[in-house]
Amino acid sequence: MLYVDEALLVLDKPAGLLCVPGRGADKQDCLSARAQAMHPDALIVHRLDMATSGLVLMARGVLNQRRLSAAFEAREVAKTYVAIVAAAPDTVPAAWSTIDLPIGPDWPNRPKQKIDHTHGKPSVTRWRRAPGAAVPQKPWGACTRVELEPATGRTHQLRVHLAAIGHPILGDGLYASASIAESSARLLLHAVSLSFPHPVTGLAQRFNSPAPF
Q1: C-beta separation of 88 from 144 below 8 A
Q2: pTM above 0.85?
């Protein structure tokens, strides 16, 4: 846990841990259960994929949950992620660029999502090459560190968008080829920063968590 006060908690979720309980006795250990063991009034406001690590915001009590949820809906919350993708550095934009592709469920292949220009929901991601972007070359090609800012919050949005433009995230067992998926023991995607207005004071809050890769 990085921060706690009377209204909220900020936690640093490890990769491989669910945000909320899943189906079955083996999926009851999760971030929300661990937080509630210390603070019984802790409530989920948003989630990260099980495979993704990094910052998660929780509310304390229903009123603060409503206020923070409203801040997400009003796009008053800013999130930045870091990922390592299959791409040569010179193929990734140095300035912020936009991926604007609608996403919807891939029903025959759940839990996968897909780009769906007919029924998908609007989905927007800003991305750019990160400082010190080059990483050691893999046997199948070059890799680059990127920064990502989701303007919308669709399921698997960052993973789907990057795969759709030909730059899947290393370690992604759902959207990358077998060689890229097997190139890392974990999905190389981490929520590094989180900014939002405090639900009680309205003052700007900002938290950071360096990527562990």
Answers
A1: yes
A2: yes
